[in-house]
Amino acid sequence: MAKIVQCVPNFSEGRDLDKIEKIVDPLRGKEGVKLLNYEADKDYNRVVVTVIGEPEAVKNAVVESICVASELIDMTKHEGQHSRMGATDVVPFIPIKEMSMDEAVELAKSCAKDVWEKHNVPVFLYEKAASKPERENLATVRKGQFEGMSEKLKDPNWHPDFGENKIHPTAGITAVGARMPLIAYNINLDTTNIEIANKIARCIRHSNGGFRFCKAGPVEIPERNIVQVTMNLTDYTKTSMYRVFETVRMEAKRYGVNVMGSEVVGLVPMEAIADTAAYYLGLENFDMDKILETGLME
């Protein structure tokens, strides 16, 4: 059976629709590549793209898309709520079918090499592809963001895995890696107080003693007069969506704040949604075999 890989590149443009279409266009109409979704956020000023297909075909299409992004996005003028260090901020490869994590790591390294050699954008490897333990965590790699990255690269410990120890003047630097599927999940609070979101994020994220597979932080959404607790759930089978949601709701009550709702950014595994539905509906002896679409896909 054919190997299948998923790739979820994040580009630092969420407001200019013309630029977004040009960045995404190389991912359309390619043999062996299927564009599943792309979702832009004006407040984050970021677009998250999901493609799937044959490993080499996906890699080549993504490298082409990165080229377009590096030409169109000027990071010296970029502003947004989301942490970022490059025009193409992060490029994770996720093994989906008939593909091992080791193979995904090699694909990530090949992609990183192409990005540097073809576009002169330096690259860090992260997560399972990381060259050092301290580079596994994306937040650590991205610390300093675009504005502080030139100074960071002067430290010999932070020489890029591919490229020179200086950022591309307008496209910055990119992180390429391999990982398991994660869920990008945001919970909305009916307050404009960013410190409340920050305190709640500290309660739930692993680095402060929270859930093992949760990375979280606060974000302001001025046009809606709300703040968000934004997070990545890096293993939804061990840190579930409903458990995080209920914890955030419980913590919010301490500050007289309510949860207004939540959102998923990009795509989400069906199992994660089914697990959450089973919790809130109190379903007994429920598993994926009871989902109609599961039988149809066999």
TrEMBL record:
Pfam family of the protein (one): FTCD_N
Boundaries of every Formiminotransferase N-terminal subdomain domain copy: 3-180
Keyword Cytoplasm in annotation: yes
Known pathway: Amino-acid degradation; L-histidine degradation into L-glutamate; L-glutamate from N-formimidoyl-L-glutamate (transferase route): step 1/1
EC number assigned by the record: 2.1.2.5
Cellular compartment(s): Cytoplasm
The entry's keywords: Cytoplasm, Folate-binding, Histidine metabolism, Transferase
Cross-referenced SUPFAM superfamilies: Formiminotransferase domain of formiminotransferase-cyclodeaminase
Residue ranges occupied by any Formiminotransferase C-terminal subdomain domain in the UniProt entry: 181-295
Chief site of localization: cytoplasm
One function term, GO molecular function aspect: glutamate formimidoyltransferase activity
Protein name, as recorded: glutamate formimidoyltransferase
Species of origin: Tepidibacter hydrothermalis
Taxonomic lineage: Bacteria, Bacillati, Bacillota, Clostridia, Peptostreptococcales
